[in-house]
Specification:
This protein is mainly beta. It has one domain. The protein has one helix and eight strands. Strands 2-1-4-5 form a four-stranded antiparallel beta sheet, with no helix packed on it. The protein has a four-stranded antiparallel beta sheet with strand order 3-8-7-6, with no helix packed on it.
């Protein structure tokens, strides 16, 4: 008969799976319609409920954009997924819903900057 110490018995390693489940992860699909009727689709993965969605580095000019559609997918809870659509006005636009606040502004050299805050 073999005796094994309890500490030597195999234990499942759930360290990584528990960490992954607790992290927030959101997929943003940004559909931009330009005034010249062309389109651009950008997909970004974000791990924060508040962050910058578009910045100067993305290279989009504010005055060339007619409207933006954003699809948000909560990877941990698909039920929290939703779509929004809005047109840009003057040099600053704001969109508020039950799910998200979005601010879009014209910044240095006429580029666009878009910030979001998820509300769930």
């Amino acid at each position: 008969m073999q005796s094994r110490n309890i500490s030597q018995q195999a234990k499942p390693n759930n360290l990584y799976s528990n960490i992954e489940l607790s992290q927030q992860c959101f997929v943003f699909e940004i559909d931009i319609k330009f005034k010249n009727k062309k389109y651009s689709i950008i997909r970004k993965i974000k791990k924060n409920k508040i962050d910058k969605l578009l910045s100067i580095e993305d290279g989009y000019k504010y005055d060339e954009i007619e409207r933006i559609k954003i699809k948000v997918i909560d990877i941990n809870n698909i039920k929290n997924s939703f779509n929004i659509k809005f047109k840009l006005k003057n040099n600053y636009s704001m969109f508020n819903s039950n799910h998200i606040n979005v601010s879009v502004s014209k910044v240095t050299l006429g580029f666009i900057e878009c910030n979001y805050q998820l509300l769930f």
